[in-house]
Write a structure and sequence with these properties.
alpha/beta, six-stranded mixed sheet, 21% strand, 15 helices, FAD/NAD(P)-binding domain
Length: 450
């Protein structure tokens, strides 16, 4: 494709990265965003303060030439630190190699770097411009200036929607009959609090994702560069143990004292944070029909928003950008490009949506289960013995971007069956039967491509 005019709606994270990639290819890029300029404003209330960046998201940042600016913002997390109600926290490493690390990164700082890079590359950045929809016949974009209230239309060339889970452009495609959308709300909401630094230092171990699993709910904490942690409670919206039941200060105080006694003393602003900070909703967005001919395309959360429990929403969006960038060199026009993009990406984004929901159950409950821990150690042992065939599913998703989400899901199911069979025979065999393990791995798991 020869460089052409393209309009991107949404400057959260995927929008600026895609704008940077396309501008570097010589496309004339205009980026519209309803919020104020992140280079001079503050992050919108209710949006998660920090995120987990993995190898799958790092690769597109490297491709765009911007990772060097982002790397100083990252805090490495080598595993989970699991806090029970009593006893010492237990560390569970993500992987068994030095490079198998996830990174905590602040949303606002990351957004700022990507936006600045897109602007330097030549993208035109227009903030405080709300997208109202798209004329499906003429392909004209409908916008509103948030300061003046003026509504206007523009002929934008090809439109790419990176406007998030509540995408106005997805709504326009659904209204036009080209997109079929199914939204699965999670019955659990989330609320964020701040665990402040003491004398500029982290009061918890900064090299881990902290989890307080409590069965039907959980609390997590991610480190920030200033020594604080962002603490997030995931809890049912309604019921006996729910956000509804914590509406009064005394109820919230009692809940934290009972459920997280080791943490309560580190949260001096707990009740203020609980009253002031919004209660965020979570959902999975399933969309079939991501494009309107060659006129418009959905990308990132606009097409496939997922729950955050595998830390892959942002990473999947960044991978979208890299896949689209690859396809530009292979396709002749927008229509072919958009069709091929959906064909390649939708099965993979459906796979990570499923794995994200499964990971919530793992984080809030399974991490405490002795059987889960045995199988995790067994998976590491099999990975050492058969590295060309057996890689734990979590590692495939987080540390091996050469393995697609769909392949990780498929192989993960085969591997779980092997682990359960070997673990089930542990007592009668007097331990793990590694001869049987070798036979099962070679029979059921094809060698991975190098």
């Amino acid at each position: 494709m020869k460089p052409q005019q393209v309009t991107i709606v949404g400057a959260g994270l995927t929008g600026p990265l895609l704008a940077l990639m396309l501008a570097r290819r010589g496309f004339s890029v205009t980026l519209y965003e309803r919020r104020p300029d992140p280079r001079i404003g503050r992050i919108e209330a209710g949006r998660s303060i920090n995120l987990a960046l993995s190898a799958r998201g790092i690769r597109p940042l490297e491709r765009a030439g911007v990772y060097g600016e982002i790397e100083p913002l990252l805090i490495p997390m080598r595993g989970r630190l699991v806090h029970e109600r009593s006893g010492e926290p237990a560390f569970q490493p993500y992987g068994q190699r030095a490079w198998e690390v996830n990174y905590s990164v602040g949303r606002a700082a990351l957004n700022r770097v990507l936006t600045e890079a897109a602007g330097r590359a030549g993208a035109e950045l227009r903030f405080a411009q709300r997208c109202l929809g798209l004329d499906p016949d003429g392909g004209r974009l409908l916008l509103q200036d948030e300061q003046s209230g003026r509504k206007y239309e523009t002929a934008p060339g090809a439109v790419i929607a990176a406007d998030g889970a509540g995408s106005a452009l997805r709504g326009a495609l659904e209204a036009a009959g080209t997109a079929v959308v199914r939204i699965e709300p999670l019955e659990h909401d989330y609320k964020e609090m701040t665990l402040p630094a003491v004398a500029g230092r982290h009061v918890l171990e900064p090299g881990a994702l902290h989890i307080w699993p409590r069965g039907g709910f959980m609390l997590i904490a991610l480190p920030n560069p200033d020594g604080s942690f962002t603490v997030t409670l995931f809890l049912a919206r309604e019921g006996v143990q729910s956000f509804t039941a914590l509406a009064e200060d005394f109820a919230a105080e009692r809940f934290f004292a009972e459920q997280f006694p080791d943490l309560r003393a580190y949260l001096p602003h707990l009740l203020g944070d609980f009253r002031r900070n919004p209660e965020g909703r979570l959902a999975t967005v399933h969309t079939a029909g991501w494009h309107l001919g060659g006129k418009a395309l959905l990308l990132g959360d606009a097409a496939h928003a997922i729950v955050p429990f595998h830390g892959q929403g942002m990473n999947a969006g960044f991978e979208d950008c890299a896949v689209l960038d690859d396809l530009i060199a292979q396709c002749d026009d927008w229509d072919e490009l958009f069709r091929q993009f959906e064909r390649l990406r939708r099965p993979n984004t459906e796979a990570i949506a499923q794995m994200a929901l499964e990971n919530y159950l793992e984080m809030r409950d399974s991490v405490r289960d002795p059987g889960f821990l045995r199988r995790k150690q067994l998976a590491f042992a099999l990975e050492k013995r058969f590295p060309d065939r057996f890689i734990p599913r979590y590692s495939m998703v987080m540390f091996h971007p050469e393995i697609s989400y769909l392949e990780a899901l498929r192989r993960g199911q085969l591997q779980l069956a092997i682990l359960e069979e070997l673990d089930g025979r542990r007592e009668q065999s007097g331990g793990i039967d590694f001869e049987l393990a070798q036979a099962l791995v070679r029979e059921r798991l094809p060698a991975l491509k190098s």
